[in-house]
Design goal:
Shape: globular
Helix content: 10-25%
Radius of gyration: 20 Å
Order of helices and strands: EHEEEHHEEHEEHEEEEEHEEEEEEEEE
Strand order of the largest sheet: 1-2-5-12-7-10
Strand content: 35-45%
Number of helices: 6
Largest sheet: 6 strands, antiparallel
Length: about 325
């Protein structure tokens, strides 16, 4: 077994999106491909079509799936059995608003050939007047929503929420949602890439063609009683406690043990500078602290720093 004293870091995978921008470069100093509108940076991912690759230490060059299969106990501790690492962690740079969309609940996903997907958002940076679209304004019949789609008025039925930096939201499967322009978000989600677009604001591509919609599938997934969700009220440092993941927001003024021995955690530095296991982390950088790592303390360097801690319940 290789020495696991230092946190693991991974090469991000950048995804070009029509709604993306360049803030990951300007705010977080990520080396984006030139001339591309990058909407997503997949920071921690174990999927057949996308693999996080370790970039440091004795495991450099190995995939997250390799670690999950061959070093499960040493790196991840006693976690639930699963064929792949259960989470997908991203940064989203939403220069423009995303499509109105929904993810399938577990009881529907299989029949649609998709995967269930619950996710959480932490607003790392919000421009003035940034918004989210979450749930419906009031319960409606499916037929009412279908009629609104046909007439191009579906967005009028969805709740719009003004958001600010530091807000957090849980997006269960079945909840209709869209991210407005001007949001930079840390997204923690079930390991799934199934999204059904309901409405795309009548946008067209350079060839004048609209993006594909998935209305038939979406109508089977939308919870038409899901109304007026609000930001999560933090319980001290705890932002979100879900069956799939827990997310905590910490201010680090001196030093602190990240997680107890035998447990792993993924961390994202939100502000300031942090040190853990001899490695330095700045805003927008992620690391995974292995369950067997000896040095489990995260230290603030300079003024107060802030991090998100992401853990998986046993």
């Amino acid at each position: 077994m290789p020495d696991l004293q230092a946190p693991l870091t991974f090469e991000p995978i950048f995804m070009e999106r029509v709604w993306g921008g360049r803030q990951l470069e300007t705010l977080y100093r990520k080396h984006l491909p030139p001339g591309k509108q990058i909407g997503e940076s997949w920071e921690i991912v174990d999927r057949a079509e996308a693999q996080s690759i370790v970039r440091n230490g004795p495991l450099a060059g190995r995939s997250l799936h390799d670690l999950w299969v061959n070093f499960r106990l040493e790196i991840f501790g006693r976690v639930r059995e699963a064929p792949r690492f259960p989470l997908l962690v991203k940064l989203l740079d939403c220069r423009e608003k995303l499509s109105l969309q929904v993810h399938p609940p577990a009881q529907v996903a299989d029949s649609l050939g998709g995967e269930p997907k619950a996710e959480a958002w932490f607003i790392a940076h919000a421009a003035p007047e940034a918004e989210l679209y979450l749930g419906l304004q009031k319960p409606i019949a499916r037929e009412t929503f279908e009629a609104a789609l046909t007439s191009g008025r579906a967005a009028e039925l969805v709740q719009r929420l003004r958001v600010k930096t530091g807000d957090a939201f849980l997006i269960p499967s079945g909840r209709m949602h869209a991210i407005g322009g001007g949001n930079l978000i840390v997204e923690v989600q079930e390991n799934s890439d199934t999204t059904y677009r309901v409405f795309d604001w009548n946008r067209v591509d350079e060839a004048g063609q609209p993006r594909q919609l998935h209305i038939e599938q979406a109508m089977r997934c939308i919870d038409f009683t899901d109304c007026s969700p609000s930001p999560i009220a933090a319980n001290n440092e705890s932002l979100i406690s879900h069956d799939l993941f827990a997310i905590d927001r910490w201010q680090i003024q001196s030093q602190r043990e990240l997680v107890p021995p035998g447990t792993f955690a993924i961390s994202c530095c939100l502000s300031g500078k942090l040190e853990c296991g001899g490695s330095l982390f700045r805003a927008g950088e992620f690391f995974l602290l292995p369950a067997k790592a000896g040095n489990r303390v995260v230290r603030n360097l300079g003024s107060t720093s802030e991090l998100l801690r992401i853990t998986v319940p046993e």
